[in-house]
Design brief:
seven-stranded mixed β-sheet; FAD/NAD(P)-binding domain; 33% helix; alpha/beta; 504 residues
């Protein structure tokens, strides 16, 4: 007799894990299928030279007591288990600009945020208060973001069509302040004339409320959620890649795995990119027009990553991140050429339990388009399916790494002298481990000109197939968590779970 579950979840990214935990707690039998050896999607970590590196979770917002992510984690029973370090209250992010020696600080707490920036922009208090007021106002329009049931869709619609660039330019004519206010936009890939302000607002708000590092990496989040899933009767199967979603008589009956076996269920939730989900699903219920609409949605750019291992006690640890952009390019930082790359980069320090005073590692992130690595797209390389992409690929990564390091050295003189070794990753790495076909970091691009087009419903035309994950609403750990809540409320048919989380 084959196993049959109430709910089968494809993919153990944050959205899938949240769905699994909530629904297991609600009494459903749950099975999570993960293609990789390690669960968690962008929560995955890896070790090089005995140093832990995050693949995607470099810091978290909203983890202060009573805040949105805190409440979800409290409900799932993991908040007390996580090893967290609060980032610098007066500076969680520093904004660096080419040809400017100043370092502009983002502080935690809205009044503190304003006061810190007033030190560099003393005549811009009105603009800063308008900016913070608008962020808070927009965030208030999203019920689930605030762990509130219900909500007025018309009220939300009023803020979906606000363009980030237009709004920023409307509150101040100071070009430097404009650049600083969107200075950490690598968190969402800012595009002039496209990125809605609600994306900027919801992401930045969570960090202004509170900003945190996971000590020794973010994989503990996935690990503890997985433990809670199992404690509530759920099953997680690793190395179980789904190849086909089998539909019969208008419903999904099973999923077929790479080894030819099937996992059966009453309901199915896919945490994969919607395009990949639809490609795996053959059903007349899903019209070609819908498939084409989803396939034609633009994905965000990919990234090039350098993970640096420092020589012992050579580089001081700081409780903030850095975001750099070339002067005059803050609104088009993803539009680099071979010659002017990188137009921007981020610097993240890993919080380690081994050495609170000195950093044992640093991660550098710059944009990289998929077409830059397209010549190697026929290769596939993960821990469980190791392959060599060849000397050409290694030479490409080396050239890019040295160029990025040269750029970073300008703002961080002496950095190279502290480097013991480094390791690199490209959009292909992200594609192979996470599953986005083009190595996109943050999934589907949001567009203020047609905001509803880029909101994807958790329901599909197949009544027992649901979607979740960062592509539905918002990316990142917080965004994927909220997408998990969206999917669960759609599946359960009510908002009662939101009240349970809020009152946990």
């Amino acid at each position: 007799m084959e196993d049959k579950f109430d709910i089968v979840i494809i993919g153990s990214g944050m959205g899938g894990l949240v769905c699994a935990d909530i629904l297991a707690r609600e009494g459903y039998t749950v099975c999570v299928l993960e293609k990789n050896k390690q669960i968690g999607g962008c929560l995955q970590t890896y070790v090089r030279d005995k140093v832990i590196f995050d693949s995607g979770v470099h810091y978290l917002g909203g983890l202060g007591k009573g805040q949105n992510l805190y409440q979800v984690f409290k409900y799932m029973g993991i908040i007390e288990k996580l090893k967290l370090q609060k980032m610098d209250e007066d500076c969680f992010d520093k904004i660096l600009i080419e040809n400017d020696d100043k370092e502009y600080a983002y502080a935690q707490g809205y009044e503190n945020f304003i006061q810190r920036l007033l030190k560099d922009f003393p005549n811009e208090e009105k603009a800063l208060r308008m900016y913070c007021g608008q962020i808070k106002e927009i965030c208030s329009k999203f019920p689930l973001y605030n762990l509130r049931a219900g909500g007025n869709i018309d009220e939300k619609n009023l803020v979906l069509g606000i363009d980030t660039k237009t709004f920023i330019e409307s509150i101040t004519s100071d070009k430097k302040l404009q650049a600083v206010l969107v200075g950490n936009n690598m968190l969402y890939v800012l595009q002039a004339g496209k990125t809605p302000f609600y994306v900027h607002a919801m992401i930045l708000n969570s960090y202004i409320e509170s900003a945190w590092k996971c000590i020794d990496g973010g994989s503990d989040i996935g690990k503890y959620i997985a433990m809670d899933i199992r404690e509530h009767g759920g099953i997680i199967r690793r190395n179980s890649e789904v190849k086909r979603i089998v539909v019969d008589e208008g419903e999904v009956k099973s999923v077929e795995l790479a080894d030819g076996s099937h996992v059966y269920g009453k309901h199915f939730i896919s945490n994969m990119h919607p395009v990949r989900t639809l490609d795996m699903t053959e059903s007349s219920l899903i019209k070609n027009a819908y498939k084409n609409r989803i396939k034609n949605l633009e994905n965000t750019i990919g990234g090039f990553i350098i993970n640096i291992v420092f020589k012992k006690d050579s580089y001081k640890y700081v409780k903030n991140n850095y975001y750099y952009h070339r002067e005059g390019h803050v609104w088009n930082m993803a539009d680099h050429t071979e010659e002017n790359w990188p137009l921007c980069y981020c610097v993240f320090f890993s919080a380690s339990s081994k050495s609170p005073e000195y950093a044992d590692s640093m991660t550098l992130l710059a944009y990289m388009r998929y077409d830059e690595v397209k010549q190697w797209e026929q290769t596939f390389n993960t821990v469980s399916a190791a392959d060599d992409r060849g000397p050409g690929y290694e030479a490409f990564k080396k050239r890019k790494a040295e160029k990025l390091l040269d750029c970073v050295e300008e703002k961080f003189p002496g950095l190279r002298d502290c480097v013991k070794t480094y390791y690199t990753a490209t959009p292909l790495s992200y594609r192979d481990y996470v599953g986005n076909d083009d190595g996109s970091m943050y999934g589907i691009v949001k567009d203020y000109q047609n905001p509803l087009k880029t909101f994807i419903s958790p329901r599909t035309k197949i009544p027992n197939l649901y979607l979740t994950g960062q592509n539905l609403n918002l990316h990142g750990i917080l965004g994927a968590t909220m997408s998990g809540l969206v999917t669960c409320t759609a599946f359960l048919g009510n908002d009662e779970i939101i009240e349970k989380i809020r009152n946990a």
